[in-house]
Write a structure and sequence with these properties.
Layout (H helix, E strand, L loop, with lengths): L1 H6 L23 H26 L9 H4 L1 E2 L5 E2 L9 H37 L23 H20 L3 H8 L7 H69 L4 E2 L5 E2 L7
Antiparallel strand pairs: 1-2, 3-4
Helix pairs in contact: 4-7
């Protein structure tokens, strides 16, 4: 009979969910959650009651030998041993020396990176850029720098004219073709060619202006990224130098070559022999 009762599907008892208007308060608290919260609250309440009674019944003249070995800081907080092994003075000096070497290495690396970024930033600031589509300088060729696309296009046109002049100056067939007048061309054809040239020049000018605007935006983004990176590198270098200075001061205090400030905030210095 019990096996048949277990074979029948039971009713799934589901917990009530948090209503939608009260969804900002999180999951709806159930009875087991309330029991845990009430138990924790009552335990804390009892503990506070015991501490309050101890504070009211405290004897100001109370003494125990444990007070002789325990230590407190200037704020009255008790200092306890954490169980860490105590290092010798020589071991601490060696560790501080290794730390100083690591800091010097990181400072040199950061300084080199900062100088490299500064050089790139200065070059970008002076508008010395090469543009895509130009030929690389190989052999006896010269490399020209242009500030805008118009200037680059003017340099390319001048170079092409110079190349054509150098290649066709001594060629008689080239001179004959150049000086020959076209035959059978009408004024209508000339007008169409003029209109086509004007349309091509306008399209080329529009494309050049778009490329120049895109290049200007790209240079602006590069400039901002280089500025932020340079600022971060300067801050890192300054922090590393400050840490190195503090480490050197600590090593000098351990060697007894300089004064300092003790835990109580009192300044002290090395007594020098009178000459």
């Amino acid at each position: 009979m019990s096996s048949m009762r277990n074979a029948v599907q039971r009713w799934n008892h589901k917990e009530r969910a948090q209503p939608a208007p009260r969804g900002k308060w999180g999951i709806l608290e159930k009875h087991k959650d309330y029991s845990l919260r009430a138990k924790d609250y009552n335990e804390k309440k009892k503990r506070l009651k015991i501490l309050r009674e101890k504070a009211t019944e405290r004897n100001p003249d109370e003494f125990s030998y444990g007070m002789l070995s325990s230590k407190t800081d200037r704020h009255g907080r008790r200092l306890q041993d954490r169980g860490n092994p105590t290092l010798s003075q020589d071991a601490v000096k060696l560790l501080k020396t290794q730390d100083a070497g690591y800091l010097r290495t990181m400072i040199q690396q950061t300084r080199k990176t900062r100088e490299k970024v500064e050089q790139q930033y200065l070059l970008n600031d002076q508008n010395l850029h090469t543009f895509p589509g130009g030929k690389e300088a190989n052999g006896d060729q010269h490399l020209f720098f242009a500030a805008t696309l118009e200037e680059q296009r003017l340099l390319d046109t001048t170079k092409r004219k110079q190349d054509s002049t150098s290649t066709g100056a001594d060629d008689p067939h080239h001179l004959a073709k150049k000086n020959a007048t076209p035959v059978g061309q009408s004024s209508k054809r000339n007008t169409q060619i003029d209109h086509r040239q004007v349309a091509l020049s306008e399209a080329e000018h529009l494309r050049a202006s778009k490329q120049e605007r895109a290049l200007r935006k790209l240079r602006k983004r590069q400039r901002e990224s280089q500025q932020s990176r340079l600022k971060a590198l300067k801050i890192r270098e300054r922090d590393l130098l400050a840490v190195e200075q503090q480490l050197d001061q600590g090593r000098a205090r351990m060697n007894g070559s300089v004064g300092g400030v003790n835990k109580a905030g009192i300044r002290w210095k090395i007594r020098e022999r009178k000459r």
